Amino acid sequence: MTFVNVATWPELLDALATRLRAGQGFSVATLNLDHVVKLRDDVRFQEAYQQQTYVVADGNPIVWLRRLMRQPVELIPGSELVHPLCAMAAEMNVPVALFGSTDDTLSRAADSLANVHNGLRIVLCISPPMGFDPDSTAADEALQQVASSGAGLCFVAMGAPKQEILAARGCDIAPNCGFVSIGAGLDFIAGSQRRAPKWVQQIAMEWLWRMASNPGRLARRYGACVAILPGLAWKALSAASGNNPK
Question: By C-alpha distance, which of 153, 149, 100 is closest to 128?
């Protein structure tokens, strides 16, 4: 939970606008409870998170836990970053790259974004093959493509931990580009996946909507998330009271 270093939407958008305007690279990760589970045992994922420029709270449990810590943050889902950042890129004439998902999804997402944001330039779409390793030579070559394309902003939609690892490496290979990890963000825009209705999001039940849509894949994941909540809550309360939990 301490990875979160940006508390609000205005703070994040102001920081990213400053970097895009100056042509400075960055990376954005969106922490959720599933990431917390993975971070416990995945050293490479931990390293990637430590290298992120900005980390925000993507998931109501993270927001609630930060409140318990008396360090409140706003909910900033990765999928909701796409449109405001595309609007920013169009206004600043910053070229955009899309990385992840399938060729069909990328094509439809690119068309949709270009239709919504007048002047947006999507200069590169890369759909990595199955089994893509973000630490591989193939990843190096793909990131070199991003650098060569002139993109100043790259949305990475591969899921954790691949997208965060790739984004961290991208900051070295394409230092003038900002990498934003967005999970299923492009699938939502393309219509390949359907996001929970607004009313479900507003009552913090999007996780249940997703699990009902794919219980075989997500039940175990969410079970692991629920299992660690009591311990995290205790640590958050201990941090708020000034104790140092073991």
Answer: 100
Q: Which two tokens stand for residue 152?
A: 């100043």
What's the full length of the chain, in residues? 246
Model pLDDT for residues 154-190, shown as the tens digit of each residue? 999 999 999 999 999 999 999 999 999 999 999 999 9
Which residues have a Cβ under 8 Å from the Cβ of 129 and sit 6 or more positions away? none
Residue 75: strand pairing partners = 57
**DSSP at 70:** T
Q: How far is CA 155 from the centre of its chain?
A: 9
Look at residues 75, 72, 100, 242 and name the one whose alpha carbon lies nearest to residue 185.
100
208 phi and psi angles, rounded to 5 deg:
-70, -40
**Residue 69 identity:** M
pTM of the model: 0.90
The token duo for 242 is 């000034």
Tokens linked to 77: 């889902």
Helix or strand run (H / E) with residue 144 = helix 137-149
- DSSP code at position 196: P
For Cα atoms 69, 75, 81, give the angle at the middle one, nearest 5 degrees. 140
Beta strand extents in 127-168 (DSSP E only): 153-157
C-alpha separations of 90 from 23, 53, 107 in Å: 14, 22, 18
Confirm if 198 and 181 have CB atoms less than 8 A apart.
Answer: no
Q: Return phi, psi of residue 137, to 5°.
A: -60, -35
Tens of pLDDT, residue by residue over 192-239, are 877 656 755 666 657 555 656 666 666 677 788 878 988 999 999 998
